[in-house]
Design goal:
CATH superfamily of the largest domain: Response regulator
Distance between the termini: 45 Å
Radius of gyration: 18 Å
Order of helices and strands: EHEHEHEHEHEEEEHHHEE
Strand order of the largest sheet: 2-1-3-4-5
CATH topology of the largest domain: Rossmann fold
Number of strands: 11
Helix content: 40-55%
Number of domains: 2
Structural class: alpha/beta
Shape: globular
CATH class of the largest domain: Alpha Beta
Number of helices: 8
Largest sheet: 5 strands, parallel
Length: 230
């Protein structure tokens, strides 16, 4: 069955245009005009991706995004009139996988949707990746962290955080430049290298909270790598 896209947009004309372009590409769509309805639809319909506006009635896009990330890793593309870098970085810190700035070309939005879903699909290959006390299920999109006492903690990662972790875990001693990580893990998105810093900051925090302290290393002037664990 074709992917279901939840369009969260309070301007009916914009929502209709997005739905028309996505429908033409073969996607199924459902629309919500406020943040609370969006969360209800997400819970009931389990969409494959959420197109999420920031300025919404009842609950704004930041609140919706935070709740979606608490629930799991459904890919989210933000659609916003806020074009400052700080606003974009805030979206990424909370856990958005991509964003487009209004006024946008709906063809570009569809391209972003394809790119994010393709990244999610690329990760759905069978197999386990084990390194540095991590067990990464590439099909189930789960990450377990095993700490010194043998206990295992499951991480709740966004699609982009998961993709970055997998990319580095395949070569755990290699240092990756920011531009390499953008090309490998954020294709089709805004290639601000600071977006990688934001995603990796979130990833480092989640690993630290699970007991894998200091696993993501920032090599000044070079990039990032996964540190070997004792």
């Amino acid at each position: 069955m074709n992917a279901l896209i939840l369009i969260v947009e309070d301007e009916a004309e914009i929502a209709e245009v997005l739905a028309a372009y996505l429908d033409r590409e073969g996607f199924r769509t459902v629309r919500a005009s406020d943040g609370l309805t969006a969360l209800d639809f997400h819970l009931a319909l389990k969409p494959d991706l959420v197109l999420l506006d920031v300025k919404l009635p009842k609950l704004d896009g930041w609140g919706v995004l935070a709740e979606l990330r608490r629930r799991g890793s459904t890919p989210v593309v933000m659609t916003t009139a806020l074009d400052q870098d700080l606003d974009k970085l805030q979206a990424l810190r909370i856990g958005a996988d991509d964003y487009v700035v209004k006024p946008f070309n709906p063809v570009e939005v569809v391209a972003r949707v394809h790119a994010v879903l393709r990244r999610a699909g690329d990760l759905g290959k069978q197999g386990l990746l084990r390194t540095n006390g991590l067990e990464i299920d590439l099909e189930g999109h789960t990450v377990g962290v095993r700490v010194a006492d043998g206990a295992e903690t499951q991480l709740n990662l966004t699609l982009t955080e998961f993709r970055l972790l997998v990319h580095m875990a395949r070569n755990p001693t290699r240092v990756f430049s920011r531009s390499e990580l953008v090309d490998a893990c954020l294709p089709g998105g805004d290639a601000l290298e600071r977006t990688v810093d934001s995603h990796l900051s979130n990833l480092r925090r989640k690993l630290d909270m699970a007991g894998a302290l200091g696993m993501v290393n920032n090599i000044r002037g070079v990039g990032y790598r996964l540190a070997p664990r004792a």
